[in-house]
Amino acid sequence: MKYVLLGLCAWPAFAVFEYASLKKIAGLKQVMATLTVALSASSLVVMCVDGEKLALPSSLPWLGRVLAVVFGLLWFYSMFIEIPFAVTYVRSGHGDRLITTGTYALARHPAVSWFALFLVGLVLATRSRLLLLAAPIWLAVDVLYVWMEEKLFLEKVFGDYEDYQQRTPMLLPTPRSFRRCLRTLRHHQQDHPEDEE
Question: For the chain, how many structural domains are there in total?
Fold first, then answer.
């Protein structure tokens, strides 16, 4: 249970990271970003390799590995590629531009969905009973966190956030947002053909 709690500590650390971004405290921002990753990764790794295992059919761990890789990569893409890494996670301050294209046209917080499906895959792949316990707790905290993040941070930082909220669902994509996502991805490829080389 201590590793479930250790993983939960990542959200307050990330809240301090966002406060440091808002107040433009570069050193604190970098420390809290590192701490957030360390808390999340260490608790996940320990839970995956330690403890009791679930009795699952032999095909499910393979399916779990595929889900974990696909949705882990989507999470990474949404969090670190679509959002400019250096501006968001390293430099003082915060990004000055609201990202509304790509997976952020699909949902305002696509990484929450990717994280949920990544955890499903990881539970199946590792058969970890402890991770099965942690996953719904972490997801509930993540959803609560992004709801609070919108109210306390994003609506203040980005003047056009209210319009974005009207156009784009918070977590679960709709057929309309899915079409908008595909349209923005195609538009990006047309504008940047060098990315395909």
Answer: 1
